Amino acid sequence: MSWFLSHPLTWLVATLLAYRLGVHLRDRTGHPVAQPVLVGVVLLAAALVLLDVDYATYAEGTTIVTFLLGPATVALAVPLHRQLGRLRGYALPLVAGLLVGVVVSVGSAMLLVRLLGGDELLARTVAPKATTAPVAIALSRTIEGVAPLTAAIGITAGILGAVAAPTVLTWLRVREHRARGLATGAVSHGIGTSRMLHEHPVEGAFSGLAMGLTALATSLLLPLLVPLFLR
After folding, report:
1. Is residue 53's pLDDT more than 90?
2. pTM, entire model
3. How far apart are CA 212 and CA 193, in angstroms?
4. What one-character-per-residue DSSP string does 148-206 give?
5. Cβ neighbour number for residue 130 with a 10 Å cutoff
6. S-S: 80 plus which of 68, 75, 94, 205, CB 3.0-4.6 Å?
7. Which pLDDT does position 222 carry in this prediction?
8. Cα distance between residue 172 and residue 214, in whole Å
9. Taking Cα atoms as reference points, which of 49, 45, 50, 51 lies closest to residue 1?
10. Is 51 helix (H, G, I), strand (E, B) or coil?
11. Residues contacting 90, CB < 8 A, separation 6+
12. 18-29 average pLDDT score
């Protein structure tokens, strides 16, 4: 049994099956909570705890999945290329909205931590939460945060965005597909983008664009914003 649990293929297959089950539940139920990533995280976390398997063993078995995240992210340019015509006359409000979004995201996270009694280290850790995990980890190290915790918070933000963003945007009467995609991609990066690709091709394309531009803008602005909000 120990050989089976420590074998790399075990957790690779388990990850693929958990995600596939999540896709099946989403397609059958249509419920916002039935998101493949969320279902997969819950099932795999429960399995690791119940079977007493450490994360290092799991990570070793799913190295190929981690590696493929890079090409998968780059591939998000394909749906955007198909929607290039919709960018006409939208570039200025798009850039302005994302810049404001970065300032609000970083500032609100850091101020909320300090308001609730958190220390400066935690405030630095949550600051890059709206960027995709590899960028968030690098930024967290740059501003002296706790990189693994930043990654966990970022993934949680992505899952929450994927679950709640379409519903919240509908409640707010945001019906324009480009705006819905940009809003979701700016706060819940790749996980939210996968949800928007399922919702509508335009929303998915603009969510992918927002994810990339938010990571770029956050990388440029974060070193300036962190000292400002820690005063």
Report:
1. no
2. 0.79
3. 11
4. HHHHHHHHHHHHHHHHHHHHHHHHTT---HHHHHHHHHHHHHHHHHHHHHHH-HHHHHH
5. 31
6. 205
7. 92
8. 22
9. 51
10. coil
11. 178
12. 88
pLDDT digits (tens, 9 = 90+) for 81-104: 677 777 777 778 888 888 999 999
d(C-alpha 111, C-alpha 114), whole Å: 5
Q: Which of 144, 104, 103 is CA-nearest to residue 123?
A: 144
Q: What angle do CA 204, 214, 22 make, to 5 degrees?
A: 40
| Token couple for 205 | 């394309």
Q: Per mean pLDDT, which range of 53-57, 120-124, 144-148 is the poorest?
A: 53-57
Q: Which residue has the tokens 């909320």?
A: 112
Mean pLDDT of 207-214: 87
Could you tell me which of 168, 165, 153 has the C-alpha nearest to residue 207?
Answer: 165
Secondary structure (DSSP) of 93-132: HHHHHHHHHHHHHHHHHHHHHHHTT--HHHHHHHTTTTS-
With H, G, I as helix, E, B as strand and everything else as coil, classify residue 134: helix
Per the prediction, the chain carries an average pLDDT of 85
Q: Can you tell me the distance from the alpha carbon of 61 to that of 78, in angstroms, rounded to the nearest whole number?
A: 29
- DSSP string over 58-87: HHHHTHHHHHHHHHHHHTTHHHHHHTGGGG
Residue at token pair 């190290």 = 141
Smallest CA-to-CA distance from 120 within 101, 142, 144 is with 144
